[in-house]
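Quick one: structure for this chain?
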Amino acid sequence: TSPAVVMTVVRDLRAQGQMTERLLLLTALNTAYAIVALAVISALGRTAGWWAVALHSMYLIFGSGVLASFIAIGALVVLRLFGRAAGFQFVFLIGLVLTTVALVQVLKLSLPLTLLLEGVLIRMLDRQRHLVALRLEEAGTIFIVILFASFGANLSFAGSGTAWLTDGCSD
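Got it. Here's what it folds into:
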C-alpha cells in the first residue's frame, strides 16, 4: 500500500471507479496511521512520561491538521483567482509543497501527515475543480525526494552506535 506505487499503477493503468477510489482512500488512511504510530513511537523514545507522549502526539496530529487546513483553504483561494492554467498551477504546486515543508520545519510538525491532509482537504473542498489534473511524472519524483529527504533529515541516530555495541556484546 505504498502511496507512490499505488498512484503509479492507477495512473499507468488509467484505473477508475469505485474500487480505485477505495484503494486510494485506504492507502491514504494506511499512510496516516503509520505516520501517527511513528510519531507516538518516536515520542516514547524521547520522553519518560506518558502525558508528554500523549501531548506531543496530539500536537503533531492536530497541528498538522490545522496547518494543512489553512494551506488548503489559501491554495483554493489562489486557484480561484488565477484560474486553471496548467503552467501556473505547476509552479504553484511546487511553491505550495516548499512552503509547507518550510512551515512544518518551523513548527516541528509531521511533514508526511501535513502533506497528506493538505492533499485530501484540497481534493474535498475543491467542488468546482479549480485544481486541474497535472501530469507530474518528473515533478512527482521531485516531490517524493523532498518528502523523503525532509523526513530523513529529522531522524536521529544518536543512540544507534550504543545499541549495536550492546547487541554485539551479548553473544
